[in-house]
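Lab notebook: predicted structure, single chain.

Context: the supervisor wants predicted structures on file for every construct in the current expression panel, including those that have not yet been purified. This is the next one on the list. No modifications to the sequence; it matches the entry in the shared construct table.
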Amino acid sequence: MKHVLLIVVLAFTLQANAQEDVMKVLVPVCANLDSLHSTEDWKPKSDEFASLKEKYPDSWMPAYYYAYSCIQLSYFEPALAIKDALIDNAEEQLAKIEGKCPLADEVLIMKALIANARIGADPENRWQKYGKIFDDNLKAAKAINENNPHIYLLKGISTFYTPKMFGGGAKNAKTYFEKAKTKYDLITNTDVDKPYWWGRSTCFYFFGEIEKELGK
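Prediction complete. Output recorded below exactly as produced.
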């Protein structure tokens, strides 16, 4: 019995040490994520995450950030086929993220992000199918953690780009971005294993866009 307990303790210790190693590697790579705003910015970062997910296949964190980087790249890519390939890359990481990530709300956020990217790639033909997936995952994430700022950030972005006749536009989006800001203000860390901090700069970017729209 003592031998079994020793093996279990050793396994947990090794797992904890491996987790710490991954976090140490990811900290400098994730440090400037909120300042990337182009393909030229995101491509080398995505390549770094791709390499790290291969190096640390048992960790959900490199897979999570790689998926996130692929989605961001898809928004800048003009060709539909390449957009979809990038989103496919993100979706392939879901099994690893969902199976290992302890943050159930962030797993749902990733699903919402992927659905939103599918819509962004081909809005006219995809909004109906993926719009529901997007909304359902945000609602489920909110039920788990209503303080997750990504819920309100993503809803704000979606509302901003939705035609006014369907309840969208800058005025309606502003409420969501304001809510997102209040939730970001509650976050005091940028821990890579608690990725609630990304998107803060995007939130402030849209405040500027809303001002332009409402000032017209």
